[in-house]
TrEMBL record:
This protein binds to 23S rRNA in the presence of protein L20. GO terms for cellular component: cytoplasm; ribonucleoprotein complex; ribosome. It holds the Pfam family Ribosomal_L21p. Belongs to the bacterial ribosomal protein bL21 family. NCBIfam families: L21. GO terms for biological process: translation. This is Large ribosomal subunit protein bL21. Part of the 50S ribosomal subunit. Contacts protein L20. GO terms for molecular function: rRNA binding; structural constituent of ribosome. Keywords: Ribonucleoprotein, Ribosomal protein, RNA-binding, rRNA-binding. InterPro entries: bL21-like, bL21-like_sf, Ribosomal_bL21.
C-alpha cells in the first residue's frame, strides 16, 4: 500500500517505512506530523475521491532538520560592469512515514 500526500507545496509518494525529505515543518525532532492524502493505492484498488480520502491519515515522525543543496544565483549585465552574486539554501525536514490509517 502506498499514498500520494501533499507536503509543503509538493506531492510525494510514500509507503510505511519510507524516509521523505520535505520543505521545513515547524516541529521538533521526534514529533509526530500528519499529511493529507491526495491518492491511495491498496493493491488493485485506487482511491482518489476527496470524501473517502478525508478519513485517510498519513502520519510520520520527524527525524532531523537539514539543508538542501546550495543554489548560486548570478546576474550579469554586459558592458556595464554590473555583476551580482547571491546564494540560497532551502531548509528541509527529514520525515519517516510510520502509518497510513483509515484505508477503506
Amino acid at each position: 500500500m502506498y499514498a500520494i500526500v501533499k507536503a509543503g507545496g509538493h506531492q510525494e509518494k510514500v509507503a510505511v517505512g519510507d524516509t521523505v525529505t520535505v520543505d521545513r515543518i515547524d516541529a521538533a525532532v521526534g514529533a509526530t506530523v500528519s499529511f493529507p492524502a491526495v491518492l491511495l493505492v491498496d493493491g488493485a484498488s485506487v482511491t482518489s475521491d476527496p470524501k473517502l480520502l478525508s478519513g485517510v491519515k498519513v502520519t510520520g515522525e520527524v527525524l532531523e532538520e537539514t539543508k538542501g543543496p546550495k543554489i548560486d544565483i548570478l546576474r550579469y549585465k554586459n558592458k556595464t560592469g554590473h555583476r551580482r552574486r547571491q546564494g540560497f539554501r532551502a531548509k528541509q525536514t527529514l520525515v519517516k512515514i510510520t502509518a497510513i490509517n483509515g484505508a477503506k
